[in-house]
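This is your field. Have a critical look at the following sequence-structure pair:

***
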Amino acid sequence: MHLIQPAAGRGFSQAAALLIIALVGCASPRAEPVAQGQPSSSQPPQPSAPKVIVASTANKITGFAPMALATSTGNMVNYVELHSNGLITTDTSGKPVPQLARERPSLDTGSIRVQPDGRMTTTYILRNGVTWHDGTPFTAKDFAFGFKAHANPQLPFNDRSAVQQIESVEAPEPLTVLITWRAANYLGDNLGLGILFPLPAHLLDEDYAAGDVLKFQNLPYWTSDYVHTGPFRLVRFEIGQQAVFGAYDKYFLGRPKVDQVIIREFLDRNAVFAALLSGDVHVTVELFDAIQANNLGDRWAQDGGGRLITTQGGASFLAFQFAPEYVNPAEILDVRIRRALFYATERKALSELAYADRLTPGGEARSILPLSDRLYPYVADMYADMANDPTRAAQGFAEAGWTRGT
């Protein structure tokens, strides 16, 4: 069975992403029993029931492209590669792999070049046979147009970390994307969907050229008329309720084995919990608290109603306010107070609380990256020597003039 998983992408982090699958909803349809005494050969072949997966999102569905995804968790960003594709994606280990591109560019092949003036060029060769959901061939011009819109500061795209460093995106040939960077950049061979978003020039170029930015960002394309290049195409969008996607027969990697995916809108996580137990929802990617997750896992362990998968996500953190006009109390600006607060923090107890003593992936939070991250060895247990130390905390507070109260 194929599972829908959250799309990997820069800038999306969560403390513990929970992929929850109610297996009953994904089981193959059972064959009806043959009446006793009637030969099975006399039964006409019955068409198999369509394979449907119902998933949930915890926020309002406001659209499907990155321009419409205002928050990083609990919304359609978790399902973005259900319907859309970029040059590069990632595999389950987080390793970049080609998607719309035939291969990743590299210095060895000459598809990445650093120019004498310090600029850099990357050349991507696109796959043959990719089409938009309306059947129109996908070409490099769609990336050039997508860059133009994505880099426009008047349009509410979330992540411009790459496009701000790009000087131009050109289409010298139908399947060749030539990107010129203002300087050497580590993202040159890893341009995912969220940081360079292709758009159908044949549908949007004329409206964009008209110069009415407000009208452009309110086109039906972003909601009810959305098309892209992913394995599922939008069939129906019901505002405030759900989005229905059907398998795209001409998908360049082959037709999906699931016929339909329905994303239902739930604004209450308790409602999602109940829908999972009843089988009305088969898949969700939610930030359930540990107690809810444990309860769900325990019930399913007994009745076989589903499967709870937990994984380490990115770091959650608290940041100090350094703007003098906003900070309260003002002593937060004193490094001695901040250091003492750090030593006063019981990291291990907080980790155990967050995971309800069960889902903890190794005890005390001692790194900024999960063990599963391919970059983990470079940072490892960077906080291991910064354990909770009440004595040093008290000393720091005292030095800054804070004394223990009642």
